[in-house]
Amino acid sequence: MRMFLPSPARPANGPGETMAERDPDVPHPRLNPYLIGHEAAERDYLRAWSGGRLAHAWLIGGARGIGKATLAYRMARYALTQRDGAKELDMFGAPPPVPNLSMSGEDPVFRRVAALGHGDFRAIERGWSDAKQTKRRASILVEDVREIGGFLSMTPSEGGWRVVIIDAADEMNSNAANAVLKVLEEPPRRALLFLIAHNPDRLLPTIRSRCRRVDLRPLTDAQVAALLNRYQPSLAPADVSALAQLADGSIGRALELAEEGGVELFRELMSLMGDLPRLNITRLHALADKAARGEAFRTLADLLSWWLARMVALGERDALGSVAEIADGERALVSRLRAAAPAGAWAETWTAINQLTARTDGLNLDRKRSLMSMAMRIEATAQGRAVA
Description:
Helices cover 47% and strands 7% of the residues. It is α/β, with parallel strands linked by helices. It has two domains: 19-215, P-loop containing nucleotide triphosphate hydrolases (Rossmann fold, 3-Layer(aba) Sandwich); 260-382. The chain has a five-stranded parallel sheet. Helix 9 (221-231) crosses helix 10 and helix 13 (281-291) runs antiparallel to helix 17 (367-382). The protein starts with 18 loop residues before the first helix and ends in a 6-residue tail after the last helix.
């Protein structure tokens, strides 16, 4: 079940930083030969090749952390293997069918793309904002994309196709977006452009209209769990199950939570909420002290926002009995709080918490005080008190 209330935007730990860049156990999408959950998109792409209906630009959209970039690199690597006369024909004169886009990590094309050393391939990401390359810029600039048109217009050096991936296209500023639009308006021959977008609606309508859309769905809990077991095999089964639910279909988010101790923080949060309608102040101070350290505030704020959205959605859909508990007693807690205040009051509380999170991040407010304010707002709602 997906929430009908959107999660607040979560800035990366430094613009552009991903789990793949922070955790050596999780490969960057261009290094990752493994993908599950998006087989239909792969089949559509292969049908476009075999049917002679290949679009020159593909817009791959969907939530963060569900495999968009991994899919784009699979699509790009396949395109780079397509050369005139390079494949044997079957008895009917057609190339042998390919079931999917999988490619061994030892394949020369795979290795060269992974090393950004293929002459017919370019990857565009946000540039670094400092000389030590520790933090990425907030957006993709026009100088990052200026050479795309010239590169794609050149004759492929290996007789096949030229390919560019932009990750993520919805992070381009207006000048960069207009530069890419010019390329899309007059697409070169034997050239492919893959645009990855966490929020495709942020792109110019004229860019969207010139691309073939591939909208990826969130992964299932079972798929997230399978990927967690692959990338983090030391996790306990109970933690894998909890992370799969907390991630809401995003393996990227699940891995972030695993790194940040999200399961334990969520259980502590539920223990605190279990005291409602009157919070245990000692327990609240202990959890708020954790919020003042490292990334714990952002993790706790995100989990609190996510859980409130989950509570409202479960109550509205009368689905309390159909969803597994993430923490012991959660179902009874949700039932009690839903009875204590109407859905509208909880939705207002959810909005207020998200706004306070944004202010805390933007204005560098005291994190402990902010988390305590969020908890007190929830206590007031649970007691049916109006909050100014």
